[in-house]
Every structure is written in structure tokens, then in C-alpha cells.
Design goal:
Elements (H helix, E strand, L loop, with lengths): L1 H11 L14 H25 L13
């Protein structure tokens, strides 16, 4: 099912192109938007990593 979705999903994906000229976003605004996205990503990764169980060193080798 996942492979089927992966084959179909990119075909549905449409990218909006930003207009050129006066109506385009200023570079400073684009930078602030990108920084906000990276901060949000960092926050969510930290929350997820904090939720992961930590290994306890009991002197035994971990076996998969």
C-alpha cells in the first residue's frame, strides 16, 4: 500500500511558483519564514527524541 501511495503522490503534487517583480516576497521575509520552519522542525525533533526510550547499560550486549 505504501509503495502504491508513493507512486501516485508525486503526480498529484503541484508547486506554486512565486511571481517575479513587485509582488514577489522580499528576501528578508523568505529568510524569516525559513527560519521559523527550521525552528519548528527542531522543536518537533526534540520532542520526538525525548519520547524515545533510552538504553540502560546493564553490562550486556544489545541483541537485535
Amino acid at each position: 500500500m505504501l509503495q502504491r501511495r508513493l507512486r501516485v503522490w508525486p503526480a498529484k503534487l503541484k508547486f506554486a511558483s512565486l511571481p517575479e517583480g513587485d509582488t514577489a516576497l522580499p528576501d528578508a521575509l523568505r529568510l524569516r519564514i525559513a527560519e521559523a520552519g527550521l525552528l519548528a522542525l527542531r522543536f518537533h525533533l526534540r520532542v520526538l527524541s525525548d519520547a524515545l526510550p533510552t538504553a540502560v547499560d546493564d553490562g550486556h550486549e544489545l541483541v537485535n
